[in-house]
Batch of 3 targets.
Target 1
Amino acid sequence: MLDMKFAQGDWILVCDGARALILENIGDEKFPNLRTREAFEEQHGSTREQGSDAPGRVHQSFGSARSAVEQTDYKSQSEADFLGRLIAKLETEAPNIKRVHIVAPPKALGILRQAYGNGMKAILGAEVAKDFTGKPVHEIERLLTGGAPGTG
């Protein structure tokens, strides 16, 4: 469990490559109360379902040898696009946000960091490399605040 503090009005983005929750602390720092502002979910088919052709082959510059070309990972691309759109949304909301904290698995956090613009960097609070997307809001609140008194 973590022991994070959230000021009133802070936003918390809890996401992975396919799901996201934007939460807002409507309580105060001592007694946080996270409420859902928005929820997003996308279905990303496997690369096999999204691709239309088999991986290519490359002929060597001499001789008759060939090499396989790695297939494009369409699922990872879809997830990265989804995360990029989340950050773009937060960038447009940045003037209305005091601070935003990010909770995402390490891989998603790396993708998110590449998408941060100046607006996002100005309001960025803590980054937590955890996957809490499958948990209900009250459980996310408990895990982030360390089960502090008054948390639900």
Note: Residues 78-143 form one domain.
Target 2
Amino acid sequence: MAEDLKITKGTKEEQYQNLIPQIKGLLEGENDTIANLANITAALKEQFNWLWVGFYLVKNDELVLGPFQGPVACTRIKKGRGVCGAAWLQAQTLIVPDVEKFPGHIACSSLSKSEIVVPFFNNQVVTAILDVDSIHLNDFDDIDAKYLEVIVSLITAI
């Protein structure tokens, strides 16, 4: 297991390409899901300095707050509600350039300006989502979607 994270500069793509092997190292040999989710959120927050990075876990037809880094967050989200609930309902990654323009956006933090949400699938069913918020408008793009989907795929089970 890696003990230190090496933060790198460069293009967004180069940063992801350097971070992914480090995340693999953090996950290697560890089978505790919560520990792995916690390390993924910490690694992403440290590398990109986003406002909020965390997981919501599907429990009893709700998304329930899991490991995260950042300001306090909404604890429970209904299916179809807000960006997280919409990504769960649609079972796809959602990129929101301006959260104020997203119908039904849940403002856990007034500092959040843009967001990306990536679902985790277990047997083709969404069982968790990765949620990332930024203080900048239009901070996420297809590069983020591509690499965050790769990072989520490294998780073996939720």
Note: The radius of gyration is 15 Å.
Target 3
Amino acid sequence: MRLTQKELHDALVARHGAAMQERLDRAAVGIAGLGGLGSHIAVHLARLGVGRLVLVDFDVVDVTNLHRQHYTMQDVGVPKTLALLEQLEAINPYLDYETHTERVIPANAARLFAGCDVVCEAFDRAEQKAMLIETLLTRLPDAFLVSGSGMAGNGSANAIRTERRFGRLYVCGDGESDTADGVGLLAPRVAVCAAHQATMALRLLLGERAP
């Protein structure tokens, strides 16, 4: 079944209300990293009908990704940007999807996410997270940043929370668990953290600033 743009948009308005959907229609969110966090964040935001999604990742889907990331076996070997784009277009083909299959570094971060109201950081490594936070808070003064930190292991999902650290930076996670401690990344807990990030992005787009 192929819905028209009006049919799908009318359904979103019916669920979200016209005023909320109008704000989401005009919004732009960037996602840095399309793994366990980023792929799920993107799906949530596409279902909300966020008007423009900027998807950035340099990697391809690997079999080791399948236990927690929003991909299937048929995606193995495909760039994550392209595999995820196919999924998102099946959910809502009428949004503006911008993909960049490249590694985010200080020299290109501001260019990649220019015009985004919110950027969701979804990298694996602490140094990558710190680089993006420092770069975007400095070079994109109007953008909010929502980061993920601490979602490893099988601890209680209730330990995952959203906190406003300072200014335009929000951090989601338990703030403690780390794969370096020998605990793995498991699908349910990673998805909970991704939902926190997507929810905070939504609230920021609607003008709410408290976590």
Note: Helices lie at 5-16, 18-25, 36-48, 80-91, 109-112, 126-139, 187-205.
